[in-house]
Amino acid sequence: MNRNKTHYISGDRGQGACKENIAFHEAGHAAAIYINNKINRLPPVFFQIRLKDIDNAQQKHVTLARPNDGDYVATIEGGLLIETFLAGADVTDDYMTAFEADIINILIGPLAEAKYVYECDNELFNPHLIKIYNLIYYGGRLDLVLVSEYLQSLSSDKQAQDKKLKQLFARAFDFLENFTHWQAIKKLANYIYESNKSIIVYEEIVSILGPVESQNNPASIIITSEKELVPHRLRDQYTYQ
């Protein structure tokens, strides 16, 4: 998922607000990929955060036009569980679990940025106040493009797509409302903001987020070495935003 360059800065938070927003956006994606996948007993996938001059990111509204290649300020490379979309009889329960996890992890990035902005502005953050397509104002335009591709592969029925998206949006919101998850995102966002690194590798991210217990298997071993990971399944045309 690539985070688009232009986005909206609300309130009067001064210089540095754009960089803070991006830090929370990427931390949301990263924490979701690691924690949400672990909770759902999904195979770990390699990913890393790449940043491109976020100190000079523009503070503007998001445009709806699709950007040119490379038109982003931050990206998560890797992290997608689904390599090839399946349809009809080929879809298994395991596939759907991974499919839905990918969409939730995509949505959590801009949602984390939105939650941070709402908290900075002392506003109540709840699913009734923020709509799915308002995520474009929180760097989520490219995220929503990717989510749309997922949903279109699942069904050509727009009502079915909208129903599934509404369900997964609610689950993404619930993930953020978990106090432990939000504290992990804040910790990682602070590291992203302070580190001034162009690449934050998987091992760094995992060490910051800490161990995660699976809901179904609390004693499961935490995988922290890239050598232990299954190969990541990044599709050529997309990276996480």
Main sheet: which strands, in order across? 1-3-2-4
- Radius of gyration of CA atoms, rounded to a whole number: 17 Å
* Count of distinct strands: 4
Report the portion of residues in β strands.
Answer: 5-15%
Regarding CATH, which class? Mainly Alpha
Characterize the largest beta sheet: strand count, sense, and whether it forms a barrel. Answer: 4 strands, antiparallel
List keywords for this structure.
globular, Methane Monooxygenase Hydroxylase, Chain G, domain 1, alpha+beta, 6 helices, 241 residues, four-stranded antiparallel sheet
Topology:
Elements: E1 2-4, H1 17-39, E2 47-51, E3 72-78, H2 93-120, H3 141-154, H4 158-177, H5 179-195, E4 199-200, H6 202-209
Antiparallel strand pairs: 1-3, 2-3, 2-4
Helix pairs in contact: 1-2, 1-5, 2-3, 2-4, 3-4
Q: Care to give the gist of this entry?
A:
The protein is α+β, with helices and mostly antiparallel strands. The chain has helices spanning 17-39, 93-120, 141-154, 158-177, 179-195, 202-209, and strands at 2-4, 47-51, 72-78, 199-200.
Please, could you describe this protein's structure?
- This protein is of the alpha+beta class.
- The protein has a single domain, classed as Methane Monooxygenase Hydroxylase, Chain G, domain 1 (Up-down Bundle).
- It contains six helices and four strands.
- The protein has a four-stranded antiparallel sheet.
- α2 packs antiparallel against α3, α2 packs across α4 and α3 crosses α4.
